[in-house]
Predict the 3D structure of the following.
Amino acid sequence: MNLMKNKKAGYVVTGQWAKKAYQEAKMYGEAVELASSADETFSYIPDCSDLPITDDMDYVYICENNTIYGTKFKTLPDTKGKVLVSDVSSCFLSEPVDVSKYGIIYGGVQKNVGPAGMVIVIIREDLISDEVLPGTPTMLKYKTQADNDSLYNTPPCYNIYICGKVFKWLKNMGGLEEMKKRNEEKAKILYDFLDESKMFKGTVRKEDRSLMNVPFVTGDADLDAKFVKEAKAAGLENLKGHRSVGGMRASIYNAMPKEGVIALVDFMKKFEAENA
Amino acid sequence: MNLMKNKKAGYVVTGQWAKKAYQEAKMYGEAVELASSADETFSYIPDCSDLPITDDMDYVYICENNTIYGTKFKTLPDTKGKVLVSDVSSCFLSEPVDVSKYGIIYGGVQKNVGPAGMVIVIIREDLISDEVLPGTPTMLKYKTQADNDSLYNTPPCYNIYICGKVFKWLKNMGGLEEMKKRNEEKAKILYDFLDESKMFKGTVRKEDRSLMNVPFVTGDADLDAKFVKEAKAAGLENLKGHRSVGGMRASIYNAMPKEGVIALVDFMKKFEAENA
């Protein structure tokens, strides 16, 4: 609604949120599916080096980390000069980001930043404009928020306060460089085990694996269910995969310590030995 | 966007939020100002017993308690059978409400319910519909929220949790009947003093006085400023009135104990004696 001057935009569809964004955009103009990984249950990131972007497109949309499917854009698409709009809800603050490559970075804070109920937006100043689609609610105009220092409505004070605490925690720890190092270390423990296990298998193409969300399966739905149940009994919670992919998913956001990942892998080894 | 089937609605303009709602509605259809108290700086509630409501209006809007101006609808407008839409942000849970008289009751939770960042909506079931204006964002459709038990997006969990605590606190205390009694008692202490003081004067017509927000003035801007400054030094915070009305405003929401109001009146008496 804020960017559709030509009423045309390109969408890379890599999962459920990308699909929702793509379908929503159709209400406001011509939304073009530039690429999709729906053919293999969104288990990879499509090649985005030469997308069919046309000159009249207002922007190119991606969902940078796909929570349900466990994929992540390791290389940003070549947008051929068009504005890149990225939903970073499930990877924001997990590693450093070169904001100059984006037009808009946005995301819910509830994964790595703070309590659910707030959104963070980083927008290039020239994209903040009063020329929005007719009927755009005032509170949904980026210009309204920018002109009012994000205080057009009463802001979610508690959420902001906790986010501030998290920012300080991150800075004290060594910032996003250090966070990236820790996240890579954590994810490696789990992915290395998945690659050597005879029972468990990661579902995502190796080059597209997320640092945050790690889906895996045994290949046997009953065994998957047994694993989830026994893991829960052992104190390892929320390992059931999304219903659209089944199996298991370990979300190892910033707040998950290395010890948690080690405990999971130890449990998986034990389960594999017991159920081989 | 959800209710404008005929693209025409009536607005009673009693303050800044009502004005914003009225202006916003103009984007989507014909918004008619049914009555206004702008002529006397919104210091009263207009007579709403015979509003110029026409048969093609989709609804009638009011802002039931006007935070800045300290007015409250003591009697709901005669909507002539049209749907009543009421913003109750600053009076919700301050007293019992007969929900059957409304089509939609909505409000931010940040006054009497819980931490800022959430909205409560009570809507009549027959008003939940897919027939919304074209271009209505999916997340702004009441039907989306109703169909998904308010979980279409990740909900503001912490805010909901605290609201639940407040609901229990209210119930334990005796519910909204008891809350009303306490609020009337609190407000009476302050209004009685304003009515007898030679220095301080309430700005609102007596019959329209809010139980939640009590604006008052000395009639001398310098003396007002002195009062606000000295009150703050004495531990009485946030007494400066909104810049559009000047003077002072005491917000005595549910969370303010009677003792707080007594302390304010004691300080006002002392100030009046010292500055007479």
Observations:
- The mean pLDDT of chain A is 97.
- The interface with chain B takes residues 1, 20, 24, 27-28, 108, 110, 115-118, 133-135, 137-138, 140, 153-159 of chain A (CB under 8 Å).
